[in-house]
Records
---
Amino acid sequence: MADLTYLSELKEIRVNENSPLFDKTGMHYKEFPSDYRQIRYFTLLIVQSAPLEIKEINLLEQQISEVIKNAVKHGNQCTVGKKVRVWYSFDSAHAHLIVQDEGEGFRDLEKWNDFNRKRLEILSAQDFERLADFVSWRTQKSDDNDGGNALFAALEYWDGGFVFNDARNAVAMLKSFPQKKHAIG
Amino acid sequence: MIINTMSQVIESPLLSMLIMLAGAGALFFTLSRKDTEGQAGSFIALIGFLCARELFLAIMPDPRFGLLLDFLYFSFVLFLTMAPFGRPLRGWLAGSLVLNAMAAGLHVAWAFAGFAPAMPAWVFLPVFGLDILAIALTGAFNYGDRNDRARHLVAETWMPTVVALLAYFVFLMILGRDSVGFQWLVLPISYVWLAIAGLAGLRIHDDETLAAVAYYEESIDSLYNLSFRVGTVFKGSFSTEDVLGSMNEAMIAETGADGGTIYLVDEFDDIIVAKAYAGLFPPPFALPESLPRKSNRVESYMKHAQFRLGETILGEVAKTGKNIFAPVVTADGRFASNGDEDFLHLSSFMAVPLMVEDKIIGVAAVARTRPGNQFDEANFDRFKLLANFGTLAVSNFFTFLEANERSGLERQVGIAAEIQRTIIPKKLPQFPSLALGAFSSPARGISGDYYDVIRTREDRLVGVIGDVAGKGVQAALIMVMIRSILHLITNTNKDIATVLDWVNRGITGKIDMDHYATLGIIDINIVTGELEYANASHQPILIYRRATDTVEAVEIKSVPIGVEKATKYQRKKLRLYDGDIAALYTDGVVEAINEQGRQFGRKNLGEAIARNRSLSPKEIAGKIKAEVMAFMGTAHQHDDQTILVFKMKL
């Protein structure tokens, strides 16, 4: 029988508009046109307000860039007139982000969770033959540039939660940075 | 003998006896000055008592008093011999003293009060014999115990003491107290043991001092070696592993170990991680079953091992902070056997926590591997000493690393801020028909805002504002590049949108770093107020119209500098009339947030300009700065804030 203990700490995308992660109090705000070419620039504008003490800044940049990319591409279908709205706040212990697009919302969210659950089951059963079918998540709308893996990574990275609103066009996320328990110096 | 005259004193043995006792007393007095812990004080008291006794007996030569004082004398010596051994002999000591007291009491009753007159005098004698026997047995049984100075002294002097007391007692019995032989010969000689004890005490003290000096000399040598090794590393390396590696080697060398290892407590997690490993250090804990018992595999495992706090004998030390000294590992239940191979054989083991004040930062352990080759107490002492001092050096090193990293960040921030400060104009030009004003307040660590005013012709002025994305030195470099290109090409007769095209082409795709910037640029005719405005994704220019008392935001949709090389920027023709105000500003102004998280906003900015329309641009800039500051209150400024204001006076 497969080991199901991982289910207790199963990571999945949740939908909860009342999540405290959607509380925008005190957060900075920027909005951008859905211009795919400018994603790197937008990311930089947001990340530049992160404190110098955050050491894994490149990983943070990468993850923020992925979320904005999702909003621009899958949410707003790269329609320049549609806006991506970003609320963000950083301190040396946390990164908190809300990204909202003007698209129809993440319809396949449940499907994605199913897919991810199966993928984790197969991983835990070490069934490498079937794993080949679960390497990446693809839909009819996916193009060759979509690795289909960004969300797996996002779920791992945003350890404080990765939550959609009810319309599923906004996602709030929280990352906590490890804090020193035993300072040596 | 009853002393009546001075000459009798001189002729009696009393004087020489007192001189004898005074000599011994002087020895103990010297000892008591050097050594406040020992028994010198008790010996001085004994000598004082003996002097008093001799004086008393010279005046009152009653043999009944003599015997009574002998009980006291012997009891005193009993105490001096047995008390240093503490609890185990406390019962015997008390018993002996009680016996002496009872014998003395019985003697008083018998000799002075006529109690049981038929009892013969020899009844009391066995008590003295028992006293001497007790002293002899105490000395003989504890001969090897030299753990403190008082016991050491007993071990060295019990024989002369016994001989002296025995001789004293025997001759007292044979010759009688008043006999010339006893007074002149036996009594003074019997006190010689006190002098011997005094000399022995002094010698013991000197030996200890010498041993301590030798110990500290060796310790200082060890510490010197440790400091030398670790210090040599500091010169060439800033790596934690190198520093701990030399500390480990120093500890192995100074304890005569075959190998050693150092673990550090992880800064973020409750685990210890191997940081140094050298020589032969067989695992003191059970290896994983699956690990092949090959020396290279085990060594590589040991070099990268990590454990939770409390797990394995090393994790235990890191958790509890308690030393482990296991001279004979095979006789110690705390160690698991990992196999019969030679390289897995652990013979002797020591581990100590590395502590900074009361904080445990790691564990050091050393091992000997040859059967029968054991660490001794001195090795353990040395190991503890080195661990203490080594930790001090290492923790200073960590503090330095952290400070160095922080100052590296600070220096970067400082350099970027300095570049920014340098390239922003110190003074803005003023004209009869056009006045300018600006403020720029950088946020710590950002240094992305830029503004400039370039006079391109007699009647033409180019004003530019920019915001480089990113921060630090990198952003400052992009800013310098943009400024250089602008200063080169604004003097041409190209229109202002083409200037942006050229800046964009100059920046895009050439350098391997992020190179995005927004730019807002105006080309204004100083005399007529005619104005061309071009924009690379910058905040829209605000224009206050005096005629209508309204503020308009002129927007041109575009992408920032650096996104695409072929970008064609657009321009708009505008005109400033008398009293009109144009303002270029950066994100930081309109996106400044207050404690409630609300943004200052473009509307507030426009209203602030309109409210201060009658002031000079310099004053307007100042007012806006004050207003934004007041709005933010105690909230943190997260981005540079810059504003450049133009006002027409036709």
---
Amino acid sequence: MSDPKKPKRRDFLFTASYTIGAVGVGAAVWPLIDQMNPDASVKALASTEVDISSVEPGKSITVLWRGKPVFIKRRTEEEIAEARAVKLDELKHPEKDEDRAKNPEWLVMLGICTHLGCVPLGDKGDYNGWFCPCHGSHYDTSGRIRKGPAPVNMEIPKYEFVNSNTIKIG
Amino acid sequence: MSDHNYVPSTKLGKWFNDRLPLLSLSEHLREYPTPKNLNYWWTFGGILTFCLIAQIVTGIVLAMHYVAQADLAFESVEHIMRDVNYGWLIRYIHANGSSMFFLAVYIHIFRSLYYGSHKSPREVIWILGMMIYFLMMMTAFMGYVLPWGQMSFWAATVITNLFSAVPLIGESITNWLWGGFAVDSPTLTRFYALHFLFPFLILGLVILHIWALHIPGNNNPVGIDVKKPSKDTVPFHPYIVIKDLFALLVFLTLFAFFVFYSPNLLGHPDNYIEANPLVTPTHIVPEWYLLPFYAILRSIPDKLLGVVAMFASIFVLVILPWLDTSKIRSAVFRPLYKQFYWILVLDVLVLGYMGALPPEGIYLLIARIATAYYFIHFLVILPVLGFKEKTIPLPLSISEPVLNESHEVVNNNKMSTE
């Protein structure tokens, strides 16, 4: 009899068969999983152009981009000053306002609470920014999380000013 | 099983039974020896079976009229309510049926906790039951999304966002669940497909649950083993069947009250507003039966830990047979456990109430204390109690407390050494 610990030809055949079988099953299952990912028609709705000429200072509009609300806020001087006066070490998720708003007058961000996805309410909360009614997260005038369960600041989407009256999101 | 020697009376029956022993199965179900001291808390298994069948039947009928597409879903539900013959009745039975289903399952679970039905040798029955309960919650949640009202949409958003708490791959998971970048039509359609599938998975688990039950037989209010069949047991049919049917009738009275007199009492009025991704309702609450878990989620100020705590609160139930170290099953003979049991009931009710209130100030504090107590009960009190508690001597048989009024103290070492 040969040494039982030494791999035999049959062991090699078993391992090779299992491996090939596992790869085959994986290849067969993957389409069934991947079909649930965003499809081509959803991905095609990548960008939206928004006319912002009618937004007054201190007001904001909400537009839908990829099924998500985007806040476009025209901030007042006081709101900008308030956002810029905050020291970074006071923040849960430190980000400079200068990095969040390319043009300080316009704050463009996803209007989605980073906790569990509700739409926060504007001009509310302890920091004069946004307040999420679902689980009580407070955001400041730069959309940064200041208090509550949300882990990070509201997300800034990719956007650009096409001209002084139009923003292209996406 | 004592029906191995069963022989059908007719020749055809015998011919068939030799090939597929369905008649033996039916005979087993008929004469299945059941402890004679079962009280009405034991009728909820039958009631739950009824609830599952009622949900499947009304659900299949609703599926013939409902359209799972974001632009049409809300209107198709109103179409069912206004145009479809008896559509209002069938939908109200289905919608209130989920509440009645959960009411019955909570009574069923708390009955197990009181009488120690989760303990050896019934751990597998208990774990199967917890799997059924978990699937029920998923099914109910996805069903609640289908009418595509405001509460539907935002419940779907909040619950699917729980998965965004997963480090690194959270966003990929949520996009995969949604089939997009937010809850939208693809989400609705897949929830519908799964809402249709899951009840049949539950049905399969229910069959395993009953199968596992029929191996050791029912626990009973005294919580001691019975010899079966013996003078301690009665055949399932007709004794238990009739008793279960009577309890079902009483239960159906309550069910009918909700369906016919206050069909929207347990729902939320905001769900009669069509889903709007731009506006979150000022106060989002899940259905009442999920509120305790919602309170646990909200009481933790960290996103990931909140989600972990919520799932952990279900997981501690799964491993309960090993957390509860006491050999004595029934709370009747456990004076301390009995008190902690009722504190737990109160704690879960408080959690449910806090889940319905806004998470701020004193409510948040109460929810946090109740959450902490929930875990302390299962992870600290139950394991310790099994060693510290002085239990009351057990009777020798379940006939004894009935037949022997004098209640003489008998040698209970037999039970604890078994």
